[in-house]
């Protein structure tokens, strides 16, 4: 702050002193003083003193917030993302409304940037920990069973091969979900838009899902009407499958899942109603976050609904969840 303050102070003093001297010179030439030399000397001294005080105040008011930002920026660059520029500064009065000065705006903008960086770093660490956790379980199982096979504790038969394949499928699905989200974040996930009937897309997905629902004893019903829209049929099918996967996880045996597609005005709506316990208020606010999982044996990797939200928004739509009066959760997807 010292170098900034001194530089500003000297610059402002120079301007004000020069201005004061010019005024005194003009007065002397006009014959306003009887003693021309004395008037110039005393006028210059008074002008210099006032200019020094005024310049010091102006330089201090400008240099202090700049110094705060500079110090905080150095801490952020050193890895302390919690650093903030702090300054008690009164807003300036401009007209009938209170306006924030440029220095206050600079501090606020810097603090917003630092907050965003801190939040992103926290999310990055949480994502890394979640990925490690999700990969660790299937890898540990695969490693343990392969070691047992190698030691001759297990017999390599069709049952064992199917079990190993199930865990490799989990790994493959997790890696594919992560790849999908990373492409979306990088803006490199492209959609093949074209006319498609959402009722047909959902109907095909439901037909392919019926066997899984039957094996769990869950009834799967589908109601629809023609709902032509512009979208990527393959990605929309992925949205439906992820919603069905989530509904099946939380539906009890002998439960019920209802899927509906219909038009409403110029928009298209998709509803997936499961027979599970529903969602709490806290859960409904976070259910579409990456790696967010509810407590219980039915929880998955926490990526399926995040992908649903990503794909729906790329189609210009919205997705939400609420509890049905008769019980269970209802996921609603709207395409305008």
The name of the CATH superfamily of the largest domain reads Histidine kinase-like ATPase, C-terminal domain
SS element count, helices: 8
The proportion of strand residues reads 5-15%
What fraction, in percent, of the residue positions are helical? 55-70%
Largest sheet: 5 strands, mixed
What features would you describe in this structure?
- The chain has 336 residues and is an alpha+beta fold.
- The protein folds into 3 domains: 2-88, no CATH class; 126-185; 194-335, Histidine kinase-like ATPase, C-terminal domain (Heat Shock Protein 90, 2-Layer Sandwich), CATH 3.30.565.
- It is 60% helix and 15% strand.
- It contains 8 helices and 9 strands.
- The chain has helices at residues 2-29, 36-77, 102-150, 158-185, 198-215, 233-250, 281-286, 304-314, and strands at 92-94, 97-99, 194-197, 219-224, 228-231, 256-264, 267-273, 318-323, 329-335.
- The strands form 3 sheets. The chain has a 5-stranded mixed beta sheet with strand order 4-6-7-9-8. A two-stranded antiparallel ribbon has the order 1-2. A two-stranded antiparallel ribbon has the order 3-5.
- Helix 3 (102-150) packs antiparallel against helix 4 (158-185), helix 4 crosses helix 8 and helix 5 runs parallel beside helix 6.
- The radius of gyration is 34 Å and the shape is elongated.
- The two termini are 55 Å apart.
Which characteristics define this entry?
336 residues; alpha+beta; 3 domains; five-stranded mixed β-sheet; 8 helices; 15% strand; elongated
């Amino acid at each position: 702050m010292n170098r900034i303050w001194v530089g500003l102070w000297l610059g402002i003093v120079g301007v004000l002193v020069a201005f004061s001297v010019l005024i005194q010179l003009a007065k002397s030439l006009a014959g306003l003083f009887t003693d021309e030399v004395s008037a110039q000397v005393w006028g210059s001294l008074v002008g210099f003193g006032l200019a020094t005080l005024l310049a010091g105040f102006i330089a201090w008011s400008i240099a202090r917030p700049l110094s705060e930002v500079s110090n905080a920026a150095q801490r952020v660059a050193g890895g302390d993302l919690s650093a903030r520029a702090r300054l008690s500064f009164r807003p300036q009065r401009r007209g009938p409304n209170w306006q924030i000065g440029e220095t206050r705006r600079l501090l606020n903008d810097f603090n917003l940037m630092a907050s965003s960086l801190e939040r992103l770093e926290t999310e990055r660490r949480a994502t890394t920990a979640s990925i490690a956790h999700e990969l660790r379980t299937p890898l540990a199982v695969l490693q343990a069973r392969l070691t047992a096979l190698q030691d001759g504790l297990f017999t390599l038969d069709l049952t064992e091969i199917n079990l190993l394949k199930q865990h490799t499928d989990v790994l493959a699905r997790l890696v594919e979900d992560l790849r999908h989200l990373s492409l979306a974040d990088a803006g490199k996930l492209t959609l093949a838009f074209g006319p498609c009937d959402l009722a047909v897309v959902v109907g095909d997905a439901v037909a392919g899902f019926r066997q899984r629902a039957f094996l769990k004893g869950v009834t799967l019903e589908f109601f629809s009407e023609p709902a032509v829209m512009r979208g990527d049929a393959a990605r929309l099918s992925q949205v439906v499958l992820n919603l069905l996967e989530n509904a099946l996880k939380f539906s009890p045996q002998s439960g019920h899942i209802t899927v509906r597609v219909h038009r409403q005005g110029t928009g298209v709506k998709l509803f997936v109603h499961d027979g599970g316990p529903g969602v709490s208020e806290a859960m409904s606010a976070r259910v579409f976050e990456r790696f967010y999982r509810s407590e219980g044996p039915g929880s998955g990797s926490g990526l399926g609904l995040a992908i649903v939200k990503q794909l729906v928004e790329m189609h210009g739509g919205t997705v939400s969840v609420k509890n049905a009066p008769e019980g269970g959760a209802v996921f609603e997807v709207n395409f305008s």
